[in-house]
Amino acid sequence: MAAAAAAAKAAAAAISAGAAVALCTERAHAEGGGPMFRFPGFSTPSPAPAPAAPPPHQQPPAPAGGRREEAAEEVPRVSTQHSRTSAAGFDPAPLERGVEALNKLKQAPDPKKLFELMKKQEETRQQEFIAKKAEEQRALAQLEIEKKHIDYEETKKLDQQRAKMNAQTSQYEDELKRKRMQAEHEAQRMRNQELVKMQEESAIRLEQIRRATEEQIQQQRRQTEKEKADIERATITLKSVAEADARIKELRETEDVRRRLLVEEIKADREKWIEVINTTFDHIGGGLRTILTDQNKLVVAVGGLTALAAGIYTTREGARVVWGYVDRILGQPSLVRESSRGRYPWSGSVSRATSTLTSKLKNGSNLGKNGNGFGDVILNPSLQKRVKQLANATANTKLHQAPFRNMLFYGPPGTGKTMAARELARKSGLDYALMTGGDVAPLGSQAVTKIHQLFDWAKKSNRGLLLFIDEADAFLCERNKTYMSEAQRSALNALLFRTGDQSKDVVLALATNRPGDLDSAVADRIDEVLEFPLPGEDERFKILKLYLDKYIVKAGDKHEKSWLRFFRRQPQKIEVKGITDDLIREAAAKTQGFSGREIAKMMASVQAAVYGSKDCELTPGLFREVVDYKVAEHQQRRRLAGEEPKQNA
């Protein structure tokens, strides 16, 4: 017991000494001293020294604003976060733990073991404190790293903003340069436009001056030629007057002699004719006396005269009947207006052979008058190509003995439907016959017979025949219309009967301005439909050149071959001056809406205007005048044609 009491006293003394040392240590630590005294088990672990400052090249970037100054002013401070820590930094917790441990040792039955246990607990608490301090240091290091990262990000953003501002500045400068260059280019372009405009105005002024000079020269030339013609006419008049005076003087001198000779000649002729008349009447009177006195001779004379009259009448009527029969069997039907075949099989054979040979020779040397192998027919290129294909197909159809295909041509009047049909027949090697639908209605009840005769005559062609019916809607219109007569219905039915099957002898080609009026059965018999529109500007230009060459340039080249040409006045040659392709193209642009027939009639009007002028020459002014007049006339006709349906309505 005494030993135990001694151990307890020793432990109490040790604990008291440890508490005093711990108190001194805490006080020294609170006053800023370092870890000079360490008593394991009873002393509070001192804080770890602060990490060494990084070298200058590893210093983190200085914080923005005044943070750098605040960081410089920071100093170590005593931690006062514990609830029981005093303002001077003294913590009484260790002293209290020592007192509490001392009380436990006094009360414990085995103070030594309790002391060892309390020592181990204190060591464990110190280790936990060290681990916690290490964790706090790691957190502080992490905060420092994050601070450095934040400073780096801010510096990076600042650099990026500076680079962006520099890029924007460069882009703005480039934009200013581009705008300045665009302004310079626009100013240069405006200057170029003004220069080109000035050049065009100068060229126009020069052209106007040239035209005025040319007109002045032409006017002076016309004035000179007019004065020359006046002088020639005055000279001819004076010469004629002188010659007339000389002839009058000569006639006056020989008048008496001629009068005497004429009187003697008249007397001689009168005596001769009187003698002839007397002799004739003497013979006639003797014959009549002989016949009247002899009864037999009178009967014979009367019978002979009667037989002669009867023979003449019989011969005339018989010849008329026989010729009518021959004409009906072999002749051309009355419905045909024009045909490449002669009226009779033997008529025109020599001329047809000659024309065929001539056309073959011409086709071998050139392609036609207008250079396209289609004669004088000028059509739209696509339509012309289609007509050529039909001509080749028709020729091959005849060669292979296949059925022909019927055709329908429709379009405005004067667009070349008839000419195209004629050229199609010529190209395909067929004969052609032209008729008009208006000739059927006047025939009345004879129309059916005439149509059958027409088709019978067409089948006799050895080469095949293209039957072209112009104005087909005149008798092939819809049968439901009330104004259609019974004879017209019969004629329509006859044509439908003759065209019900595909024919190997006849090609039926219909032409109309109103295809919608045709009967549905007629439309069902059509295999090919071609539209002939009004000519375009290029086609009008070609047609103008064609008829200019035909009516103006070659107007006086055709000479009559009969002996009457010696008694007729020859046409005067037309002189063409200043008619260029540009002038013709200008006329083609003005004649918008003209058909080919209207252009041909306009060129005939130009020819008439030239023949009506004094000098018989075609000038640009005269040509433009006639073209403008015809264009105004065409527009007036269109206005009248547009007003007439309104008045009827």
Comma- or semicolon-separated keywords:
single chain, about 650 residues, mainly alpha, two-stranded parallel ribbon, 8 strands, about 65% helix, elongated, disordered C terminus
The share of residues in helices is: 55-70%
Report, as a whole number of angstroms, the end-to-end distance: 155 Å
The protein's oligomeric status is: single chain
What is the typical, i.e. mean, pLDDT? 78
Our Rg estimate from Cα atoms comes to 67 Å
**Which consecutive residue ranges, at least 5 long each, have pLDDT under 50?**
21-76, 78-82, 358-369, 645-649
* Proportion of residues in β-strands: 5-15%
Overall, the morphology is elongated
The structural class is: mainly alpha
Number of helices: 15
Taken in chain order, the helices and strands follow as HHHHHEHHEHEHEHEHEHEHHEH
**How many β-strand stretches?**
8
The largest sheet has its strands arranged as: 1-3-4-5-2-6
Could you describe the largest sheet, including whether it forms a barrel?
6 strands, mixed
Q: What report would you give on this structure?
A:
This protein has 649 residues and is mainly α. The protein has 15 helices and eight strands. It has helices at residues 2-30, 67-73, 93-107, 111-293, 295-330, 349-365, 381-399, 417-428, 447-459, 486-498, 520-524, 537-553, 581-590, 596-612, 620-648, and strands at 338-339, 407-410, 431-436, 465-470, 506-512, 528-531, 575-576, 617-618. It has a six-stranded mixed beta sheet with strand order 1-3-4-5-2-6. A two-stranded parallel ribbon has the order 7-8. Helix 10 links the parallel strand 4 and strand 5 (506-512). Helix 1 runs antiparallel to helix 3, helix 9 (447-459) packs parallel to helix 10 and helix 14 (596-612) crosses helix 15 (620-648). The N and C termini lie far apart (155 Å). The model is unreliable at 21-76, 78-82, 358-369 and 645-649 (pLDDT under 50).
